[in-house]
Amino acid sequence: MSSTPENSTESTVAEFKSGFACFVGRPNAGKSTLTNALVGQKIVITSSKPQTTRHAVRGIVHRVDAQLILVDTPGLHKPRTLLGERLNDIVKTTWAEVDVIGICLPASDKIGPGDRFLVAEAAKVAKTPKVALATKADLVSPERMIEHLSEIQTLGESVGIEWASVVPVSATSGYQVETVADELVKFLPVGQPLYPDGDVTDEPEEILVGELIREAALEGVRDELPHSIAVTIDEMGLREGRPDDKPLLDIYANIFLERDSQKGIVIGHKGARLRDVGANARRQIEALLGTPVYLDLHVKIAKNWQTDAKHLRKLGF
C-alpha cells in the first residue's frame, strides 16, 4: 500500500521541466514588458523608444511544474552601426540555444516588412518550436484581434512556419500571461531546476542598476538620443560605518553620450533634467534591491561610440 505515494511522487518529480525560451520581435513589440509580467518583477527595462534592450537578459519563472528561463533579446532590425550588428548577433545566437521561441507581433500594428523579415529569419531555426504572441491585446477591439490572428497565420504559412500555438496576450493588463507560460512550458525538456528558488534573474546587480539608470535617462529625450546613451558603473558598495539597520548603498555611475551637443539635453537647464534622472533611477534601484541608495551621476562623452570597436568593448558590448 505504501508504494502508491512513492510512485506518484517519483512521477511528479520526473515530469518537472526546466529550460529556456526567448521572446523576439521588432523593436517595441512588448518583449520586455511581457518578460517582467511573467517573472512577476521588473528585471528588464522598458521604454517607448526602440532598441531599449541591448543584451540578452534572463528572467526566471518559478512554477510548481517547471522552471522557465526567459531570455529577453534586443529587437531584430536592419543595423546602421557596429552596435546594431552586435545586437542582431545576440538575437540569432540566442535563437540557436533555446527550447522554444516566442515571436511577439503587436496587435496594435499592422504586420509590416520588419515582422516579415524577422519571421523569415526565425524560420531558418527549423527545429525549434515557435509560439506566436499577439501582444498589446488590450489596445485593440475583438474585431481587430481576429484580423490580426488571421494575418499571423498567413505570415507563418508564407515562410513555412507551422505555429505551435498563437496566443493573444496583454502584459500590462495581465490578460493571458499565464497562458503564455503554459504554452512555453510544453516545449521544455524534463529536468531539475537550473536556478535556486527565489532567483528572478542571473544578471549581476551592477548590470541591472546600470540599465535602470539608462531607462531613467531615456525618458523624455529626443528620438535621436536613445541610441547614443550608455551607462557604466564606476563603483557600487555599501557605505562603511553605517549601522546594520540603516544601510546605504553608494553608486557612482557615468552616462556616456556620443557628442558634446547632447550633453545639454541630458543635463537640462541648471542640471534639472539630470536631477530628475537621478531621482527616478534611485527610486527604481531602491525598489529592486530593497536598500536606500546614494546615487552620483556624471555625464561624459565617448565620441561616436556606437561605431567604435574600442569604445564598444569599454562600454560592455
Overview of this protein structure:
With 317 residues, the protein is of the alpha/beta class. It is built from 10 helices and 9 strands. The protein has helices at residues 3-14, 31-39, 82-97, 113-123, 142-159, 177-185, 205-218, 263-267, 272-289, 309-314, and strands at 17-24, 57-62, 66-72, 100-104, 130-134, 165-168, 230-238, 249-257, 293-301. Strands 2-3-1-4-5-6 form a 6-stranded mixed sheet, sandwiched between helices. It has a 3-stranded mixed sheet with strand order 7-8-9. Helix 5 (142-159) links the parallel strand 5 and strand 6. The longest helix has 18 residues, at 142-159. The radius of gyration is 21 Å and the shape is globular. The model is unreliable at 1-13 and 47-55 (pLDDT under 50).
What are its keywords?
317 residues, alpha/beta, three-stranded mixed beta sheet, 10 helices, 37% helix
Number of H/I helices: 10
Question: How far do the termini sit from each other?
Answer: 60 Å
- Largest sheet report: 6 strands, mixed
Strand order of the biggest β-sheet: 2-3-1-4-5-6
Q: Element order, helices and strands?
A: HEHEEHEHEHEHHEEHHEH
Strand content: 15-25%
Outline, from the CA principal axes? globular
Question: What is the oligomeric state here?
Answer: single chain
Write the layout of secondary structure elements.
Elements: H1 3-14, E1 17-24, H2 31-39, E2 57-62, E3 66-72, H3 82-97, E4 100-104, H4 113-123, E5 130-134, H5 142-159, E6 165-168, H6 177-185, H7 205-218, E7 230-238, E8 249-257, H8 263-267, H9 272-289, E9 293-301, H10 309-314
Parallel strand pairs: 1-3, 1-4, 4-5, 5-6, 8-9
Antiparallel strand pairs: 2-3, 7-8
Helix pairs in contact: 7-9
